[in-house]
Amino acid sequence: PPRALATVLAFGAGLYYAFFNSPADYQMGETVRLMYVHVPNAWLSTLVYGVMFVAAFGTLVWRHPLADVAARAAAPLGATFTALALYTGALWGRPTWGTFWEWDGRMTSTLVMLLIYLAIIALWRAFDDQLRAARIVAVVTLVGGINVPIVRYSVDWWSSLHQPASVLTAEGPHMPASILTPLLVMTIAFTLLFLLLHIVSMRTEILRRRADSMARQQALRAVAS
Known about the structure:
Order of helices and strands: HHHHHHH
Shape: elongated
Helix content: over 70%
Radius of gyration: 20 Å
Low-confidence stretches: none
Structural class: mainly alpha
Strand content: under 5%
Number of strands: 0
């Protein structure tokens, strides 16, 4: 499919730029290349939650039939991207800062985001009635959205090992093109991967619900007969 091809090409270009067209950092050396995986996953940890936040409004306000499907399909993906952001951040932090973990604002708020994702996944599985689950999960998602700006602005609000924003700033990117280019391409590649997996997951969820509905209908017919 075109989406899968675009994702593969984006990853191919991103990996080429990251390993063959990007220099090692004068302080961090080759470990700087972890940035090309860590930053896109960190970006997706909040982007996916944003998708779920909008879907929660779709469930509670607009009552769109696909809103809760989109939210349920996105939750495991968001949890995975957030876990990868934490893991690669720890790998990058050990040689850079001398520690795998530090309870600074960015790391702690990202860990809280992972816990919110896991709680949402658990809530979906705790209810047999998917309509009731959708409403409860939507409320929890909206409340948990408070954490998103905390993750985003934690480096500005509190003392942190993380550097302030260096790409999306009022003055423009604060990094050379040799680093910025592979970072942007890898971010696009991971975003395309999320879109691809999200669409597949939504289709799978719709088919699962149809199968469950047909099974219930057959069970009712069997009881009635």
